[in-house]
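anyone seen this seq b4? input:
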Amino acid sequence: MSQPIARWLEEDTAEPLYVRGDARAILAGLPAACVDLCMTSPPYWGHRRYAAGGLGEEPGLGDYLDGLLAVLAEVRRVLRPTGSLWLNLGDSYRQKALQGVPWRVAIALMDQQRWILRNDVIWHKVKGGPDNARDKLRPMHEHLFHFVKQRKGYFYDDDAIRSPPGETRVEEGGVISATGVRGVRYRRQIRRSNALSGEEKAAAEAALDATLADLAAGRIGDFRMVIRKQQRATHSDAEAVSGRARELAERGFYVLPYHPKGAKLGDVWDIVPEDTHRRTVHFAPYPEALCRVPILATCPPGGVVLDPFCGTGTTVRVAQALGRRGLGVDLAEAYLALARG
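predicted toks r here
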């Protein structure tokens, strides 16, 4: 391992480190399990020529896949057992045929390197790019894959990335959730129900009262109630496959409380592509917004974030802003000079 990287890993410094060189060779010199998170967007196959050449310029797709997988094998080695890999990849066409590059890579990582795929995030690019082809749709998305090394026990801070909840309010002595739920309609449905027994009605009203109390106290952010013959069971009404359907059949109702810190983030992200950030030198920087969720959710504060294809340093810059340590590697000194800023 080179002395600058060794010193940087041992030091308690917030300053990022940028290293020029081939990603595979640099990572091979790092000790095992020294990185908390890898967030990267490797050069796409055959899309453009970068300042220092390298990955992405192979004549055949197989050669590109071999090169990228070799780097990601080293990423797996240097990643802690609790760590994550977030991989952003776009696709390529050859002879009018879409090649399926992102999924070829993802499947190879699962089959050949034992990575565990936790999410396939769709980055909806909102504006997208120009497309003059008249026999296909305009591409508007890219994949962002979240991989881990172990099925349980990896670092994940779900609360750090929740959408802020709306405010609960009280009007005329009644509690009203952020989405307008006050329980009046549910109470009426319970009392008028012909599908609930007297005992079930009493239990349902007691559960509703307890839920409204939790809402008023801030222990939940919102709620829904499902009552037999009034609302459909969520997901499935087949008792054989749905616990909620069984609960509805056995109790006559159930309550779905919402997390007090807000809604869980979904797997489709609407993020405008980067338009201005150093495009005069680097033509494929991804937006800072794409890095925020992976870093907040899957790297502990003060942890090490690696980008082996860092370009002008977007990942490292966001990591530093969020209180993590950033290590960037790239072949092109021109890009690293911009990253160091």
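The chain is about 30% helix and 20% strand. The first strand starts at residue 17 and ends at 20. kinda curious what u guys think
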